[in-house]
Amino acid sequence: MMNFEENISAISDYMSQVLENYNSLRGKKIDLSQTPFWDAVIISASDSSQEKGYQLQIQEKQERREVPLSIPFHVFSDPPGYKIGCGGSTMFILEKIFEIYGAAMYNMRFLLIPAGGFSQRLPNLSILGKLFSPLPFGESKYQMLDLILATYLPFLKHMPPGVFLASSDAIISFSLSENDTWTFENEGFTALAHLSSVIIGTTHGVYVLPDIKNGDGGSAFMSECLRVLQKPSIEEMHGKGAIVKSSSFIGKNILC
């Protein structure tokens, strides 16, 4: 089992390779039969004005050859009127995808990025969107969109047709093994998780897992999720079984 420093180094090396792999695809037409990638990338917007702004920025990225050129990008804004949250927006987008692709969508893999709303903590990004915030790396201009497109590439070989929902403002780092046997083939929803300190758990969502004695030896494993705690206290995490006591899970990713 790797210690903390070895685990951090492995994640850094792995993510560097992930970015290199994505960089080799930028500005090129992808043959999906040879190179795994999303059949389409879907982005949500809060209203028609934001939708137009996102479309213009995607068009500029395509003209600068900063994204794969053969992959369709779709931007959909929420319908006007009352909103029922991001879940309602997602259902609306799934309906729009069906209008475009029909029954063929059931054989496709979509990357869906909810990006509606206006940033209040980063007002400089409230108009153009956090999804297009510039990042200080990459040979040509990298934005959060590029990082998201790169980050989840390794999941494609584990993913059958379906929709992968990715946050527009979260930077996710991990390392996977070539020996991993897990897949996203279970029906319903699969969520990503990782072990963390109880202090961090008090400000995030926490998954409660069954009492699993050890993983399967890979870098990630599948588990049932018994319940989700939202920003729980340390006492609540102990009381509801959210504390993992086995050291065999250190450095592993969890899918539930």
UniProtKB/TrEMBL annotation:
Biological processes per GO annotation: GDP-L-fucose biosynthetic process
Domain GDP-fucose pyrophosphorylase: 104-248
Superkingdom as given in the UniProt entry: Eukaryota
Alphabetic keyword roster: Nucleotide-binding, Transferase
Entry's Gene Ontology molecular function annotations: nucleotide binding; transferase activity, transferring phosphorus-containing groups
Protein name: GDP-fucose pyrophosphorylase domain-containing protein
Biological classification of the source: Eukaryota, Metazoa, Ecdysozoa, Arthropoda, Chelicerata
